[in-house]
Amino acid sequence: MLRDIVEASPLSGHRLALTFDDGVQGVVDIAAIVPFEGVFAPLQSQAEFARVFVNRELGSISWPCGADLDTQVLYARLRSGEAEVRAPAAS
Predict the structure, then answer these.
(1) How far apart are CA 74 and CA 65, in angstroms?
(2) Is 39 domain-assigned?
(3) What is the rounded distance in angstroms from the CA atom of residue 50 to the CA atom of residue 14?
(4) Mean of pLDDT values over 20-45
(5) Predicted confidence band at 5 (pLDDT cuts at 50, 70, 90)?
(6) Quick check: 90 pLDDT over 50?
(7) What is the Cα–Cα distance from 66 to 63, expressed in whole angstroms?
(8) Is residue 91 included in any domain, yes or no?
């Protein structure tokens, strides 16, 4: 089943706190996934990196510079233990 990102918050060091539609939450180090070249070059700047937003239509994250990341790659990193997983927030 494909998962959508419902919340994304920038953290220091090119990390993002993500929440998926099934409640899975975690922190992914984007610098470990993406070479900051081409469309991703502007994300080297913490100011530009912090402009991340959830593209509700795609269920993914994007930046105003045109960069975006595959939701399934991010979800797989969290589920595989390659990223810091957080317990879902209490409702």
Answers:
(1) 20
(2) yes
(3) 9
(4) 94
(5) very high
(6) no
(7) 6
(8) no
Residue 75 per-residue DSSP state: H
Q: What domain range is 17 assigned to?
A: 5-86
Give the total number of structural domains in the chain: 1
Give the model confidence (pLDDT) of 42-86 as tens digits.
999 999 999 999 999 999 999 999 999 999 999 998 888 765 555
Give me the long-range contacts of 22-25 (CB less than 8 A, separation at least 24): 23/88, 24/75, 24/78, 24/79, 24/85, 24/88, 25/85, 25/86, 25/87, 25/88, 25/89
DSSP character for 88?
Answer: P
The C-alpha atoms of residue 69 and residue 5 are separated, in whole angstroms, by 11
- CATH number for position 63: 3.30.2020.10
Report which residue type is found at 15: R
Tokens found for residue 3 = 């998962």
